[in-house]
Amino acid sequence: MRGQGKLIRRFFMSPSAGTAVLPLAFMPGLALANSPQAAQYHRLVTLALFGFINIGVSLMDLHASMLLAPVLPGIILALRVGKPAGVFGATMLAVRLKLSPPTLTACSQLPRASFMRAR
The whole model's pTM is what? Predict the structure, then answer.
């Protein structure tokens, strides 16, 4: 783990970012960072972070007591429930209006398919 800070610093200080990509690819902790479990938590944090930034919540003044305020859990709930509900609703509307009938799936699979994420 020694020397990683030096490589990262070199990456950010280099005139072209490509000069430090090869040494960063051989860092010992990189395989752990690319595990499926880490990717799942990364998506969870990234989705919430961009959701907060998109509505204008300043993360610089965030305190622990603010995590229980009604706004932040509402944002998380909207992202976790509202997005799949919107995808399902729009898909069902397109099917009902005969704009796009499901060809490789049945209508009974649409609720589960709306929770899928693009990778």
Answer: 0.45
